[in-house]
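Re: the request from the purification team.
They wanted to know what the chain is likely to look like in 3D before they choose a buffer screen. I agreed to run a prediction and write the result into the notebook, where they can find it.
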Amino acid sequence: MSTPNAIQLYRRCIRSIKLIRDHSQRATFFEYTRDGFRRHRHLHPDSREAYVACNDALEQVKSMEYYQQMQATKLKENKNKHPPMNYSRDTSATSESPSIQATTASEKTSEKTQVVAPWLLSQLPHMHKDDASEYATQLYDLGFDSVSFIEEELIEEDLSFMKTAHRRVLMRQLSKIRAEKELE
């Protein structure tokens, strides 16, 4: 992938990755992006494979940018809903506490899926985003919290929570990824 469009796409990916707050997630996304572009660098710019790889990368970066936009919107809404805490003996401060804790829990859940969900969508492009989020949460709960770990260790038995068609496609995609890694 050495076309000018691929280089522009790579730069767009890197710019989007730089906006990720969490250092470990940012590092994971950077590694995943770099490896993906390196894996496809041998492709002829006019080949079908290069076209598919660029489209996949574009979908991933759009998904990441959308997620970051949603996170920014949520942060703004939370700032508006929850003004800075007043540490006086005001009873309203204690009544707000459960809602703040609930918001924190939902943010942690979305952080779980931030790395894995875009990868799932890239492997199963026609999958609904709600399914991707649910699957990413399930995978995270099973200990699969990074793309590289999923690509190396995931087996079909780990995917019993997925819809049959999604499971089949994902396993086929993982087989391709593993075969490419063995060739490198």
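For the purification team: Confidence is low (pLDDT under 50) at residues 87-105.
Please add any questions underneath this entry.
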